[in-house]
Predict the 3D structure of the following.
Amino acid sequence: MITFGSELYKEEIKLRDDVLRAPLGLEYKKEDLEAEADELRYGLLDSDGVLVACLLIRILDNTSAKIRQMAVKEELRGKGIGRELMNKVESELKKKKFKKIELHARMYAKNFYDKLGYRPVGKEFTEIGIPHIKMVKKIAT
Ligand SMILES: CC(C)(COP(=O)(O)OP(=O)(O)OC[C@H]1O[C@@H](n2cnc3c(N)ncnc32)[C@H](O)[C@@H]1OP(=O)(O)O)[C@@H](O)C(=O)NCCC(=O)NCCS
């Protein structure tokens, strides 16, 4: 788990900026980061303690949560790191008695979430200028 404002948090913002914003010519604004201060943040570290993947969790209500800002370091993709982080976070949410996870998938990453059991809901829409689709997974009944 990553604590808001910690050294690891600074690594998280750098990783997210490199992976999720810079390629779109965007950057995080102070107010964007302040608005997510109460979200849960998880990451995976390599053997040197360097952050290689991260995501945020926004609690929606007592039973549902939203996964956001999933990012894996570019040179380490395709090695199962994204899946490992998602699986660990799903286990944590199950332990906390959550039943449903939702997310807004970038269309090019849809199959990654498909393989993890997320299913599309509704129509494609645009967020930060690129096509997305809402996806949902039941993790408990
Ligand atoms: C999408 C992302 C998180 C996946 O992480 P990863 O560590 O590369 O994924 P994994 O290696 O764990 O892949 C798990 C499975 O999903 C598949 N997969 C991964 N990324 C995929 C993609 N973009 N499109 C289709 N399938 C993908 C893998 O081939 C693998 O399939 P397999 O089980 O048949 O081998 C990562 O590529 C990333 O950070 N991309 C840029 C940022 C991004 O798009 N984030 C998501 C925003 S919604």
Q: What stands out?
A: The first helix runs from residue 7 to 21. The chain has one domain: 7-138.
